[in-house]
Design a protein that fits this description.
The protein is an all-beta fold. It contains no helices and ten strands. The protein is about 0% helix and about 45% strand. The strands form two sheets. It has a six-stranded mixed β-sheet, with no helix packed on it. Strands 1-3-8-7 form a four-stranded antiparallel β-sheet, with no helix packed on it. About 30% of the residues are buried.
């Protein structure tokens, strides 16, 4: 199974920005579509943004226009640039396959304070 490792989270004020990174040590992402998910306290995990192997991205309505997902040409790292953050963006962010079997790392905590 692919292991995903997320990083880049932290504490930021409303309106601030963060850039998250995701790697799959040892295996890379290959040609799979991968995605960012988040789980807020007491809520179900939800898809935030996905990106195909060819770089086509899509976003949840709640982050459209504020977040940008990308993956490097070697397909070893995926990023999530998060701008104009709100308190609603607080949660643990995970990366995984967008389709098929998903495995979960520890995630990275994003906390947006007012």
């Amino acid at each position: 199974q692919v292991q995903f490792v997320e990083s880049g989270g932290g504490l930021v004020q409303v309106g601030g920005s963060l850039r998250l990174s995701c790697v799959a040590p040892g295996s890379g992402f290959g040609l799979k579509a991968i995605a960012w998910y988040r789980q807020a306290p007491g809520e179900l995990r939800e898809l935030v943004a996905g990106i195909s192997s060819s770089g086509i991205a899509h976003y949840a309505d709640s982050v459209q226009g504020r977040f940008i997902v990308s993956r490097d040409s070697a397909k070893t790292t995926m990023y999530l640039q998060m701008n104009d953050l709100t308190t609603e963006d607080t949660g643990v962010y995970y990366c995984s396959n967008e389709f098929g079997v998903r495995t979960w790392g520890q995630g990275t905590q994003v906390t947006v304070s007012s």
